[in-house]
Every structure is written in structure tokens, then in C-alpha cells.
Design a protein that fits this description.
mainly alpha; 357 residues; single chain; 14 helices; disordered N terminus; 66% helix
Length: 357
């Protein structure tokens, strides 16, 4: 599909890391609400089952302490307050294991999905969140329809699992009348626990599938058009035209500095017209001859002109000029392979100037 003018078009490109990071900063992440709710309930039920005996004994002790007394208690204001705090402490200590299990399950399920991240931008109040029109659009959107289907599916699963579990226990339930009340209560609790665990295990599978769907949906929503990819590349890497202009300016500045060093050279090796390489050697400060400037075409012509104006000798040596131009960058010393040829050239030039190498 062709993209519309002005940056429109079909979102066919995967979201870049930069866009995903920005979305995360805004609180937009792939997250399923089913995972925390299911795993919190599962952790709470398992903790309740594990500490049921402790809770039962504490409740018995509390009831025994409340109902067994030798005489009629005098319930003054201070006595009522003391009883309230004492029993509140007992209740809190009973609930600590369950609360801890629920807390860690909630934290772990959220960390599993999105990691540890606090989005202050998502907490900022926005008028768009209370826009009635936007709210109606969310209610009647395809995503709301999917959530409705999920809710109906969960109800069907809960009913089906409960029905199958109870149907398998019908014979035992019919014979309960011949047992003690404590046995009946214990049986009902065990049966309820088994039903809830089975339901939650099935719901956990649905929650994991829902997380996979939410992640896929999130990545689909974050997809970009080709124009958006181009614009982001410009913002990240810089406009190619501007970068090209900067490189041109930098190259021009480097060329100007190079040309300013040509008068300092001892000799300029030419090809004779296509290439030019300016060389200098100072035994007191240099370990080997150094290339001060080089160029081809118009740059070579400019080097020759500046050298002639500065009185720097021009020596034609096609092979040496080609080797120096291709092997040595400006500011680098001559490689050992070319020492002999360059030394002979400098010796010749120094002989003309009456200078020793």
C-alpha cells in the first residue's frame, strides 16, 4: 500500500527500540491483568491451605479465651480497648503468612511481565482520560469485545470445573449425613480447596495465553510506518543532508590546514600532474619522513602551486608518488618499505639546497 502524503501510511514496520523505550517511559507496556489476579488468588489459597491448622488453632484459642470465664467480666472502656488490641494482634499474626504470600505473588507477577519500572508520566492527570467520547469508544471497541469474550470464557470454565469436581463427589456427598459435623465441615473445606485449585490452574494457563496475546497486540499497536522510521532515523542519527554538509565543512577545514603545511615541506613528489605528495623530514623531531599533504586532480594542482610559490622543490617520481598517495595518510610517517626511495629523494633535494640529510 502506498503511503499517504504527510507521513501517513500503513504501519508495516516493527517498532524500533527507541519507540519501545519511549512507550515504556509513558507507561505503555505489554501487560495482562489476568496474571496478577490469578496468581494472587493462587498464592492466597495455597497459603491458606498451608497455614490452615495454625489459623484454626488460633481461632479456637481466641474463642476459648473469649467464651470461657469464671465470672461475669466487667467490660469497662479500657478493658474493651485492651481486648480489641489483643485480638487484633492475634488476627494480624494469623494473616501475616497469607498477606506475605499475596504480596510476593502480586510483585512477582508484575515483575515477570514488565520488570521494575516507575512511569511518572503515566501518573500525571490527563483530561483525555475523563473524555466521555473516548470512554465510549473504548467501551465499544474490538478490545472491549475481546475482554467480554474472555470474561464469559472464564465463567464457563469456572462452572465446568466446579460441576465436574462436584459430580465426581456426589456419592460421597450423599453419605455425609451419617458423619459428624466436624467431618462434614472438613470434607467441604477439602472439596472446596480442590475445586478452587483446579479452577486457578486452568485460569493460570489462560492468563499466560492472555499475556502472549497482550504482548503481540502491544507490538502490533507500536508498529511504525516507513515515514515514521525515516523521521526517527533523522532524529537519532541526524539528517543525512546535514551530516553530509558537516562532512564537507570538516573536509574543507582539513584541506585548508593541509595546504597551510605545504610551504613547510622539503619536497613535493608528483605524478607529474595527477598526484602530488608533500614530504618533510626533521631529524631532531621526527623518527622518519612525514607526509604533510597529498592530493589528486585539482588538489594536487593546488599543492604544486603553493609549493612553487613557497620555493619547495617539485620532483617527478610516478611510482613513489603513487605508493605514497595510496599507502600513507596525511600526518603519518613513511613506511619502512619506502624509506630507501624517500631517503634518496631527500638526499637529492638536500644536495640541491646544499643541506645535509
Amino acid at each position: 500500500m502506498a503511503e499517504a502524503p504527510g507521513g501517513g501510511g500503513e504501519k508495516t514496520e516493527d517498532a524500533s527500540a527507541r519507540k519501545l523505550t519511549k512507550a515504556r517511559e509513558q507507561g505503555q507496556v505489554a501487560k495482562s491483568m489476568e496474571i496478577p489476579s490469578v496468581f494472587v488468588l493462587l498464592a492466597g489459597v495455597l497459603a491458606l491451605r498451608a497455614f490452615a491448622s495454625m489459623i484454626y488453632n488460633n481461632c479456637l484459642a481466641m474463642m476459648d479465651d473469649t467464651l470461657r470465664f469464671e465470672g461475669v467480666p466487667i467490660l469497662t472502656d479500657s478493658e474493651v480497648i485492651n481486648l480489641f488490641f489483643r485480638y487484633s494482634e492475634i488476627m494480624f499474626l494469623m494473616l501475616i503468612p497469607i498477606l506475605a504470600a499475596v504480596f510476593f505473588a502480586a510483585a512477582a507477577s508484575n515483575l515477570f511481565q514488565v520488570g521494575f519500572h516507575i512511569s511518572w508520566e503515566a501518573l500525571e492527570p490527563k483530561l483525555s482520560k475523563i473524555n466521555p467520547l473516548a470512554g465510549l469508544m473504548r467501551i465499544f471497541s474490538s478490545r472491549s469485545l475481546i475482554e467480554l469474550v474472555k470474561s464469559v470464557l472464564k465463567l464457563v470454565i469456572v462452572f465446568a470445573v466446579a460441576y465436574i469436581a462436584v459430580k465426581g463427589e456426589i456419592d460421597n456427598i450423599i453419605r455425609l449425613y451419617d458423619n459428624s459435623i466436624s467431618f462434614i465441615l472438613l470434607y467441604i473445606m477439602e472439596l472446596s480447596f480442590n475445586i478452587v485449585i483446579k479452577i486457578l490452574l486452568v485460569m493460570a494457563i489462560i492468563a499466560i495465553l492472555d499475556y502472549a496475546y497482550q504482548k503481540w497486540q502491544f507490538l502490533e499497536d507500536q508498529k511504525m510506518t516507513k515515514q515514521e522510521v525515516k523521521e526517527e532515523f533523522k532524529q537519532t542519527e541526524g539528517d543525512p543532508q546535514i551530516k553530509s554538509k558537516i562532512r564537507q565543512i570538516q573536509a574543507q577545514a582539513a584541506r585548508q590546514r593541509m595546504m597551510a603545511d605545504v610551504p613547510k615541506a622539503d619536497v613535493v613528489v608528483t605524478n607529474p600532474t595527477r598526484l602530488a605528495v608533500a614530504i618533510k623530514y626533521d631529524g631532531a623531531t621526527m623518527e622518519a619522513p612525514t607526509v604533510l599533504a597529498k592530493g589528486a586532480g585539482a588538489v594536487a594542482a593546488n599543492i604544486r602551486r603553493i609549493a612553487e610559490e613557497a620555493g619547495v622543490p617539485l620532483v617527478e617520481n610516478k611510482e613513489l608518488a603513487r605508493n605514497l598517495y595510496s599507502m600513507v595518510e596525511v600526518g603519518q610517517t613513511v613506511p619502512p618499505d619506502l624509506f630507501q626511495a624517500v631517503a634518496e629523494l631527500l638526499a637529492y633535494v638536500y644536495k640541491l639546497k646544499g643541506k645535509r640529510i
